[in-house]
Amino acid sequence: MTSRQFLLIVAIAQGALLVGLVILIVLNRWVRVRRSARIHPLRIELDALMQRWSLGQASPDEVLRAMARLPVPIAIDALVTWSARIGGDRWQELSRGLESQWWARAVRAASRSARWWKRLDCARFLSVAATSHDVGRVLRLLRDHHPAVQIAAATTLERVGSSALVTAALEQLPFLGPTVQAYYASVLKRARPAVLRHLQQLFRRLDDPRLPRLIEFAGRLEEPVLREGFTTLATHPEAEVRSQVARALGKFPHLESVAALGYLVADEAWPVRAQAARSLGMIADPKSLPAVREALRDPEWWVRLRAGLALTRFGAPGRNVLLEAEVGGDPEARDMAALILGLSPQALAEYAA
Amino acid sequence: MSELIRVTDVVILAYFLALNTFYALLLVLSIPEIWEQTRLAEDEDFQRLMQSDALPPITILVPAHNESATIEASVTAILTLEYRNFEVVVVNDGSKDDTLERLRHAFDLYEVPRTYPETLSTYPVHAVYRSRTRTRLLVIDKENAGKADSLNAAVNASRFPLVIAVDADTLIEPDALLRLTRPFLLGRQIAAVGGTVRVANGCTVKDGRVSDARVPRRLLPGIQVVEYLRAFLFGRLGWNRLGGSLVISGAFGLFRKEYLHAIGGYQTRSVVEDMDLVIRLHRHLQRQKIRYEIPFIPDPVAWTEVPESGRILARQRERWHRGLIAAMWQYKGMLFNPRYGRVGLIAMPFFTFGEMIAPLVEGAGYIVTAVGLAFGVVNTSFALLFLLVAWGYGMLLSLWAVVLEEVSFRRYGRLGDLIRLLCYATLETFGYRQRTVWWRLKAFFTVFTLRQRWGEMTRKGFEDAGKQAAG
Q: Could you say which of B52, B188, B402 has the minimum Cβ distance to residue A183?
């Protein structure tokens, strides 16, 4: 084939593709407009029915029938939207009703689909319409390899009180990225009793590499029954564990917390000392004032900053310590005290956040 | 002579084939990407996410130099973004106008002591201000030293682990930050994320937001709409599957601060600091053997004003290409270097041989064809056929970008806008493309003399653009 023939073939193919693309663009618009014209009224009708049903003026059967007329993704969208507005027994009734719907059965079956978007549809559906019969499916979706599916499945934990699901989510939590961990934590908080039981067991596994992340999560729960577990871990050989313990203990104003933090503020690792100084400020027990004063002379800038900020929470005695340090002999403590005393209340509040 | 022309012709044809095969690959790779991204964007329950405390806190960095006219509206718009936990650090980069006074008056600023260590070295900071009315706002007043130095000063002052650099004249869509954090919520090892930048010319802007997206009626900004669609919707999407692009727009990109610190922040001597930053980021992460991704996601959108005059556009394109040449030269050690993985073996060669030298080859092609025709060495019908194929391929890529826009986000809802897009995609090949080749060719000469010069950008302002569209 000569280069001229080759170019000619390419030119013809390009011409055909160009025409094809223009037709595709026009067809796509036309199909979308028609589809929207058909579906939009059905969605409005469903929203109106949902509204009436929430006020007790329509039966769940009418809602289910209206839902069945919509394409599945739109029906799931409607469910997700309305689940935030309607809760309790009324929503449970709808969830039970959905179990017998053909389209809902198809969505449930998609938990085993090879296509991730089908599994995502299933996870989103179950996140608002799961019943106790769905535990196995949710468990599978929680372990899905597509992160979007996992995230949607984790939301189910808010609705289905199953210890098997909580255990699976907690086991996974330390291996997730920080943002996903935070999201899991926010949904797990609502399943508190099962979470607490499992956490107490996990705290006993001292060699577990997941321990720092679990302590971080447990600290967010601010549950008094966990305090004892934290103080026990204050002497753990891993600095990351001690740092998370120091952080968590700030939320538990108790004599034992103060004692443990007094020990941690003299730790060999500076991140632990900084966290301990911060937490001592959060508890603000007058007995811990000397330890925080000492931390203001720490060789590490961040520890001094945290200690200085902590002192502002001790009221007048803390302020006096800062004023003394401002004219004292230690140049580093002097600089930090001057910096902290120069901060506006607003800036202090932002640092505390 | 005739032999030389023939050999040149064959080389150009081979280059054309290799480059366009790669573009075709990008085009094919963009299909599953846009499908996945569109599905994820549609399926998100944003309200639920916004109520959760999982969203990572973000610092928005806003460098401002002589932005007196727009700074108040821009900062107000940024402060009202839909995001749970963010702060805004505005850096007044030694403005000669009353930018700082405007900020002080609008947000009731008061001076505070500097309470952060200077991790990245910058030109002297004169003062740091907080606002009595907007607790999320921090303003830094510093000596003029350019955008990169301002961004470094803002990074130093930022408190949060993710930072996003935003131009003071860029309009961010209210939910764009929320969308931009999606890869983090999906648990991926993200070093940086880029969003889409679209053309604001011709759009109606209300209260610092694009309320009605329109395709401009004027040819020059209109063609740039197609260019931006092509660059973002299929170029960068395709690169997602090839190890990440070398470019995240400086006007709209989210970075992990720890990595910025590790690479020493923004390079103050570069004219395309965004590209330079991403290349150094790739280099650092590959050298450290850190698993990472630098994805582009198409649904978070920022709108920017593009040049409407040929003179300013010429300067912009010349500067971009000058920056590309400088960056490729500076990081030539990464080229074909397996140590840098797909970046060294695919991205760097593409940007060097596909993007950087493309105007040289295309320019040579025009000259050789003209000379060959003049001397009767090149067959006229063959030359025309070649031009037809080359230009037709360009049109095909532009139309493909329009198709991706239509099947995914459809920001331009009116039929008139769609027709204009199709017209601009066709017209781009005739005249505009040749002008850009000339502008980029000039960069090969100026790269030695004007390495750091930016050139001015005259902006009409968004309100004017909006009124014009409405009128």
A: B52
Whether the pLDDT of residue B467 is over 50: the answer is: no
Judge: B39–A117 Cβ closer than 8 Å, yes or no.
Answer: yes
Cβ of A179 and B188 within 8 Å? no
Whole-number Å distance between alpha carbons of B395 and B429: 7
Amino acid identity of B422?
Answer: L
Residue B470 pLDDT class (50, 70, 90 cuts): very low
User: Cβ–Cβ of B396/A17 closer than 8 Å?
Assistant: yes
Q: Which of B348, B382, B412 delimits the end of a domain?
A: B348
* H-helix segments, A55-191: 60-68, 72-83, 88-98, 102-109, 116-129, 135-142, 147-154, 163-172, 178-188
Residues 189-208 of B with CB under 8 A from A: 189
The rounded distance, in Å, linking the Cα atoms of B191 and A241 is: 26
- Number of cross-chain residue pairs from A and B with Cβ atoms under 8 Å apart: 119
Q: Is B225 within the bounds of a domain? A: yes
B-chain residues near A22 (CB < 8 A):
399, 422
Contacts of A80 in chain B (CB under 8 A): 45
Contact B188 A177 (CB under 8 A): yes
The residue written with tokens 């809802």 in the block is B413
Structure tokens belonging to residue B130 = 């907080």
Structure tokens that stand for B172 in this block: 């961010």
Residue B127's CATH number: 3.90.550.10
**pLDDT on residue B469:** 37
| pLDDT at res. B278 | 93
B87 and B146 share one domain: yes
**How close A204 comes to chain B (CA, Å)?**
27
- Residues from chain A that touch B117, judged by Cβ atoms under 8 A, are 301
Q: What DSSP string describes B374-400? A: HHT-S-HHHHHHHHHHHHHHHHHHHHH
- The answer on B252 and B150 residing in a single domain is yes
Question: A56-60, B50-54, B190-194, B259-263: which range is least confident on average?
Answer: B50-54
Residues in chain A: 353
Q: Which residues of B touch A14 (CB under 8 A)?
A: 389, 392-393, 396
d(CA A210, CA A233): 14
- Do residue B130 and residue A305 have CB atoms under 8 angstroms apart? no
Q: Tell me if A342 and B117 make a contact (CB, 8 A cut-off).
A: no
Q: Tell me the two tokens of residue A199.
A: 């956490």
Tell the residue number behind the tokens 């140049």, with chain if given. Answer: A331
User: Residue B344: which domain range?
Assistant: 42-348
What is the model's pTM? 0.80
Predicted confidence (pLDDT) at residue B464 exceeds the cutoff of 50: no
Identify the segments of chain A with pLDDT beneath 70: 1, 346, 350-353
Please tell me the distance in Å from B50's CA to the nearest CA on chain A: 11
Cα–Cα separations (whole angstroms), residue B189 to A175, A179, B256: 12, 11, 10
